[in-house]
């Protein structure tokens, strides 16, 4: 837990791990679908097995990445699989039609768009990892009278949450300090 106090303005900011955060695979608009056969890992899907998935999806219509499991201290997470030295835990895929829409491309998806899509997938996987490992935070800023003047939740990643909380605290501190001059 992080706490900041300013005696001059009477503000207090507290940040803590959120006990019941939203699953970003459900609550956010993700570009990729994540399919695994590990219970509780990835998105809900209809495919019974890897073979069923690979035989029913038209690879020419989708950008597909193989995923591997990487064990964290608390739970399993997923990463893009490079090479063939580890087993495939699942797949992340997005349709080329969706990619064209996302990137404003009318024709073929080129190497630049593929790289942008991969970067977006890495962000989605990191956000999901922060969720499944319990690194989701919320903060609130309270004034001298005990009134909550700002509250934010479902912030994925401790460093990012600290940055947002400290920035909001400083903004309110400066605003209140300027108002008392």
List the helices and strands and how they pair.
Layout: E1 2-6, E2 11-17, H1 24-27, E3 33-36, H2 50-56, E4 62-71, E5 76-80, E6 90-95, H3 96-103, H4 111-132, E7 136-142, E8 148-156, H5 158-179
Antiparallel strand pairs: 1-2, 2-7, 3-6, 4-5, 4-6, 7-8
Describe the structure.
The chain is α+β, with helices and mostly antiparallel strands and 181 residues long. It has helices at 24-27, 50-56, 96-103, 111-132, 158-179; strands at 2-6, 11-17, 33-36, 62-71, 76-80, 90-95, 136-142, 148-156. It contains five helices and eight strands, in the order ββαβαβββααββα. The strands form two sheets. It has a four-stranded antiparallel beta sheet. Strands 3-6-4-5 form a four-stranded antiparallel beta sheet. A hairpin with a 4-residue loop joins strand 4 and strand 5. The radius of gyration is 21 Å and the shape is elongated. 23% of the residues are buried. The model has no long low-confidence stretch (mean pLDDT 90).
What key phrases describe this protein's structure?
181 residues; alpha+beta; four-stranded antiparallel β-sheet; 5 helices; 29% strand; elongated
Low-pLDDT residue spans: none
Major beta sheet, strand line-up: 1-2-7-8
Topology order in helix (H) and strand (E) letters: EEHEHEEEHHEEH
Give helix % range: 25-40%
Average predicted local confidence, pLDDT: 90
Query: Which structural class matches the secondary elements?
Result: alpha+beta
The first-to-last residue Cα distance is 32 Å
* Number of alpha- plus pi-helical segments: 5
Number of strands: 8
